[in-house]
Q: What sequence folds into this?
């Protein structure tokens, strides 16, 4: 039992350190606060996939009583630890992602026209902004054929991440 | 991190619900697919953003660490002044090399008139008073990679100095005669950026006034060309061209950051004269510009003590380098008295620097308690060599009367270091207050939170909060503060609720693709309009990932070189944690050890995957930190410890060698090399055997003629990155 407790503590300690590190990258003033607009980036960089809605919920939890535009580390740490411990919003396996693209590729061509993809991603779900869409296109679009070979795209991005 | 939650499985289940026979998936399904892709992509972008951020942090912290290092160099010179008497026999010779008469009497009397322009000179000719055809000639010539003849440079500098002498400390401008004023930030020797600005925005003229906000020189390779162009326009359009002083308009900074070297390389014969003139000119540059009594423009920032009225009254030309206290008006006597001081350096010690010197102490940002012994306000005597240079200053209350004790150091004057003549605790408080005001203007950075704290990161100036800005603007009836000094991704940035603009004009400052440059235009309405640009070698637009990767790879290389340069210290630290000698330690221990040795404020755990390998059990194989970097050429037969130290102080050594090498032949004598190294190592408290140095000196005297090609020598202490080599081999 004691061993379990120790290893649980060790795990929590590791998680705390991870969170601290990610937080520090954005703590420009070195006073344990970050701009609230960076919270999404921090959380995602820790390997979590919250939706925009879920992100708003987390922010609501870590915000001050009277929102100052800043998030304090003392509030962020316990909330984020819980998120990581419970493994909420965990990463998406590659094959699942592939299936998602395949769903959108109704004619099973193996690629998507930019217009198709744009329609789905900017109008459905949690819509992309124009900048997000353009940025994705610049990475995903095959320059010669002007389509998105999503299988290659997914593989490339997965490799880039490591 | 495993993924075993029911939510994921559910999603998984749902997506695979699709039936092969169904052609069109249900709207619910496509929405789920869309959400999944959006989430994944946003995470990918967030990861890129993290990488971009830490890349930025790496560049900045290494840059600032470099700025801290240069304090070592200036304190080295102070150290030498203090201690040369202790060096047996050869000491004074070496010192006299380093501290040679700045200019011989001859040189002093000579003006540009004595400098002949031979017929074989193919560069531009200019004549005074300057006209537009002169500035055009200069621009075309520099675009064609030509160099302006020393005679014209000297003439230009004389005229500029004369002109600047009449200028006040703060320049007051008005937009009523022109439509808009253009303000540019740091250029740092990047001629391409200046030319791009002129191309986009037009050349300076009576219809097109400009303010250049400091840091014209250092780092980039075309600093002297930029200076020439800016000064030429200054003389041509004195009411429409304005230059503020930056923290790099300072000869001590120039020694370290490349401008001095550039000038000496391009102007072998007249370089020293040019540099001497520039020293005066830099101190004569105005420190601030005010537009329409509404907008204040300074290079760094402000402090809670900034007082424009007081600033207007100080004698700015006395502050040659902000790293030295201003000369007192006794200095004229003092310069003659210097040799006496030097002769008594061993016995005279400062009773303690004034409290202003506490800012000079380097402390790491996060832990103000570490190494902060002299950043308290006590005035303890600081004769240690690493402390503030002022700790090494001498005290005298009045010029010593003759007859004096003849000293071997008679006739010593200090070239680039003449303002080393320190005025210690007897500096008039007013002078010191003025000096501090200028340091604040040139070195401060804004911060987000209220208050005003010492800028220990830079070692000078302060961090000022929005409240400080607000109060200053209110006190002087101003609306806006424009400053530079910090590189910004987009070339500009607002802060303090729009009261402060940072404008930075050197694109790709850290690395190709690292940032844009920008300039800002202000009209009578005082609404700023920004224009961005980026000098680029390639025409194809890079994706976000590519931009981040290029910059990141460059930052990581610098970081790996840092690791390499401190290898033995790091290994010692790692081994302390590795009790069982397994070659592995925990990630936490690795991060702590690295941070304590390198003293760089970086997110080490986040960076770890890029720097070191993990063993199967998740511990860090610490040796792997050093795998990618190795010595470039076979290093002469010396101990690894010595090699590492030489590698680490390569830049500083280069500077000192260049100063010793008066005739710029690239050669110094064995003796000089030995002495320099001995001084350096005793100053740095590096434990190196005398015989090791002798062996080294002998082994690099390839010709056995008693002289060393120090450039060749230093080449051995470059490093290569193995991955680069592999790529090159794969072609």
A:
């Amino acid at each position: 039992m004691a061993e379990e407790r120790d290893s649980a503590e060790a795990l929590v300690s590791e998680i705390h350190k991870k969170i601290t590190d990610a937080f520090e990258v954005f703590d420009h003033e070195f006073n344990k606060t970050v701009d609230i607009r960076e919270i999404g980036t921090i959380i995602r960089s820790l390997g979590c996939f919250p939706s925009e809605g879920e992100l708003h919920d987390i922010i609501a939890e870590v915000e001050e009583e009277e929102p100052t535009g800043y998030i304090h580390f003392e509030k962020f740490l316990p909330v984020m630890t819980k998120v990581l411990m419970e493994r909420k919003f965990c990463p998406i396996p590659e094959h699942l992602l592939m299936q998602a693209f395949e769903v959108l590729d109704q004619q099973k061509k193996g690629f998507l026209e930019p217009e198709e993809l744009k329609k789905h991603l900017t109008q459905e779900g949690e819509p992309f902004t124009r900048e997000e869409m353009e940025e994705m296109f610049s990475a995903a679009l095959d320059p010669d054929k002007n389509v998105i070979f999503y299988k290659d795209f997914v593989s490339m991005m997965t490799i880039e991440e490591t | 991190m495993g993924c075993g939650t029911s939510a994921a499985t559910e999603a998984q289940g749902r997506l695979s619900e699709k039936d092969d026979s169904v052609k069109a998936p249900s709207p619910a399904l496509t929405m789920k697919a869309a959400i999944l892709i959006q989430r994944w992509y946003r995470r990918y972008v967030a990861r890129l953003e993290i990488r971009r951020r830490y890349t930025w942090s790496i560049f900045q912290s290494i840059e600032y660490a470099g700025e801290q290092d240069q304090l070592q160099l200036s304190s080295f010179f102070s150290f030498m002044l203090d201690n040369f008497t202790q060096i047996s026999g050869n000491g004074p010779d070496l010192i006299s090399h380093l501290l040679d008469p700045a200019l011989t009497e001859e040189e002093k009397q000579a003006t540009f008139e004595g400098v002949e322009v031979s017929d074989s000179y193919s560069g531009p000719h200019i004549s005074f008073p300057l006209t537009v055809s002169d500035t055009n000639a200069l621009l075309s010539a520099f675009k064609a990679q030509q160099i302006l003849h020393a005679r014209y440079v000297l003439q230009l500098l004389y005229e500029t100095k004369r002109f600047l002498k009449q200028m006040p400390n703060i320049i007051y401008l008005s937009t009523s005669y022109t439509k808009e004023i253009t303000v540019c930030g740091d250029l740092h020797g990047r001629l391409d950026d200046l030319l791009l600005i002129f191309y986009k925005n037009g050349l300076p003229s009576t219809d097109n006034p400009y303010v250049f906000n400091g840091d014209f020189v250092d780092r980039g390779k075309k600093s002297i060309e930029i200076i020439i162009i800016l000064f030429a326009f200054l003389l041509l359009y004195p009411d429409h061209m304005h230059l503020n002083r930056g923290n790099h308009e300072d000869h001590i900074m120039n020694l370290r950051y490349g401008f001095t070297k550039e000038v000496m390389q391009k102007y072998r014969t007249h370089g020293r004269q040019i540099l001497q003139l520039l020293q005066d000119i830099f101190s004569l540059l105005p420190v601030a510009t005010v537009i329409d009594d509404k907008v204040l423009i300074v290079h760094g920032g402000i402090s809670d003590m900034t007082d424009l009225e007081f600033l207007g009254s100080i004698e700015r030309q006395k502050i040659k380098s902000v790293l030295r206290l201003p000369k007192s008006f006794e200095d004229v006597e003092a310069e003659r008295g210097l040799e006496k001081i030097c002769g008594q350096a061993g016995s005279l010690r400062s009773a303690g620097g004034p409290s202003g010197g506490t800012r000079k102490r380097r402390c790491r940002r996060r832990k103000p308690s570490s190494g902060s012994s002299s950043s308290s306000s006590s005035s303890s005597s600081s004769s240690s060599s690493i402390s503030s240079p002022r700790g090494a200053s001498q005290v005298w209350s009045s010029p010593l009367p003759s007859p004096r004790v003849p000293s071997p150091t008679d006739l010593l004057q200090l070239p680039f270091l003449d303002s080393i003549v320190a005025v210690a605790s007897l500096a008039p408080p007013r002078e010191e207050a003025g000096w501090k005001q200028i340091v604040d203007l040139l070195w401060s950075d804004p911060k987000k939170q209220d208050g005003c704290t010492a800028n220990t990161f830079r070692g000078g100036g302060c961090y000022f909060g929005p409240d400080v800005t607000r109060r200053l603007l209110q006190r002087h009836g101003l609306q806006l503060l424009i400053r530079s000094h910090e590189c910004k991704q987009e070339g500009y940035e607002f802060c303090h609720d729009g009261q402060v603009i940072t404008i930075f004009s050197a694109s790709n400052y850290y690395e190709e693709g690292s940032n844009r440059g920008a300039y800002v235009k202000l009209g009578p309405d005082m609404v700023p309009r920004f224009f961005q640009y980026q000098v680029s070698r390639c025409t194809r637009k890079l994706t976000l990932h590519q931009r981040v990767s290029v910059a990141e790879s460059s930052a990581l290389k610098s970081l790996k070189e840092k690791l390499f340069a401190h290898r033995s210290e790091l290994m010692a630290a790692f081994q302390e944690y590795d009790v069982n000698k397994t070659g592995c330690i925990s990630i936490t221990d690795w991060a702590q050890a690295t941070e304590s040795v390198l003293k760089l404020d970086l997110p080490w755990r986040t960076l770890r995957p890029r720097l070191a390998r993990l063993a199967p059990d998740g511990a860090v194989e610490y040796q792997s930190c050093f795998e990618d970097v190795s010595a470039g050429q076979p290093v002469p037969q010396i101990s690894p410890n010595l090699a590492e130290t030489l590698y680490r102080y390569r830049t500083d050594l280069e500077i000192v060698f260049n100063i010793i090498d008066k005739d710029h032949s690239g050669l110094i004598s064995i003796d000089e090399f030995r002495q320099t190294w001995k001084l350096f190592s005793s100053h740095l408290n590096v434990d190196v055997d005398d015989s090791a140095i002798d062996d080294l000196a002998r082994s690099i005297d390839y010709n056995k003629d008693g002289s060393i090609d120090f450039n060749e020598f230093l080449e051995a202490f470059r490093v290569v990155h193995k991955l680069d080599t592999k790529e090159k081999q794969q072609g």
